[in-house]
Amino acid sequence: MSDASGNARPTALIIEDDRDTIDLLEVVLAQAGFAVLSAGDAATGIALAQQHQPVLATIDVTMPEMDGLEATRRIREFSSAYIVIISSRSQEADILAGFDAGADDYVPKPIRPVELRARLAAVARRPVTEIVGGTAETGWAPAAEDAERSAFLRQVAAGQPVGAEPEPDDEDTGHDGREGMLEVGMRFVGGWIEFRGLRINPARGIVVVDDRLVDLPQEQVDLLEVLMYAGSRTLSARQLALRMRGQTEQTATTTHRQDERWIDALMTGLRLGVKDDGPRPRWFAVLPRSKYRLVRPAAPSADPSA
């Protein structure tokens, strides 16, 4: 067990049985401004968490006697620390098990320091440099939906259309909200939405493609979330932009052309990021006049991207 002195800085706790990994995490967290504690086993780590009340904890999954998932569950009983699971396991079941245990994020080994810092900032929705400058009470909190997002999700769960009203389109028979999401075959597991191997956890801003974590810019994650909630409905670039900003035509602050350029560029980046930019799209149908929708289930003898 190691204990970094200095009470003025927020405390981070490392629970890890590999010395090299501890050394790496200590450097990353110390450079970020944390006072760092470390423990080589789960029982010692839990005791340190009770004694020092860290604002951040990184926990390895594979440890002797008690694994990291059980340690996470026990720490979550008394602490609101921001918990990051560190593991060489990166299958979907392992990732979901970490979140079910109470973790706020899941980082695969081998650890890349820059990626780790970026992931902490993205999931917490605040820059790391701002987080370490505050107190534990004001600087860190478990990732959660805000009131606006919660209302949005309740609206979707009720099967109601969301965002701006769709533009008239006689050829579009798709459905918005939950009805359309089920129509294209989406599944819901805890806080996750799954669509043919593409998974998103909207509250945490995490995207997984075929059991592989994918780092996307936040705007692309937001666009993906809006597309998922649109179900089988076709939306123009303008409609997508308004939904992303929570605006209507009456409150819009941009022109149609500006939104088309913005969404077209974001959509290109999103398709490249999830490797869906081929001639036979798996998830995203790109239509004329800057319109987009999710790929619908193919009817017999129909084009797969229709």
Please describe what this structure looks like:
- With 306 residues, the protein is α/β, with parallel strands linked by helices.
- It has two domains: 2-139, Response regulator (Rossmann fold), CATH 3.40.50; 147-294, Arc Repressor Mutant, subunit A.
- The protein has twelve helices and 14 strands.
- The strands form three sheets. The protein has a six-stranded mixed β-sheet, sandwiched between helices. A five-stranded antiparallel β-sheet has the order 7-8-9-10-11, covered by helices on one side. A three-stranded antiparallel β-sheet has the order 12-14-13.
- Mean pLDDT is 77; it is low at 121-146 and 162-171.
Looking at this structure, what is the CATH superfamily of the largest domain?
Winged helix-like DNA-binding domain superfamily/Winged helix DNA-binding domain
Strand content: 15-25%
Overall shape: elongated
Structure summary, number of beta strands: 14
Gyration radius (Cα, Å) is 21 Å
What is the third-level CATH name, the topology of the largest domain? Arc Repressor Mutant, subunit A
Q: Share of helix among residues?
A: 25-40%
Could you tell me the mean pLDDT? Answer: 77
Series of secondary-structure elements, N-terminal to C-terminal: EEHEHEHEHEHHHHHEEEEEHEHHEE
Distance between the termini: 59 Å
- Biggest sheet architecture: 6 strands, mixed
Q: Oligomeric status of the shown chains?
A: single chain
CATH architecture level-2 label of the largest domain = Orthogonal Bundle
CATH class of the largest domain: Mainly Alpha
Total domains, how many?
Answer: 2
Summing up helix and strand content along with how strands pair, one would put the structural category as alpha/beta
List low-pLDDT spans: 121-146, 162-171
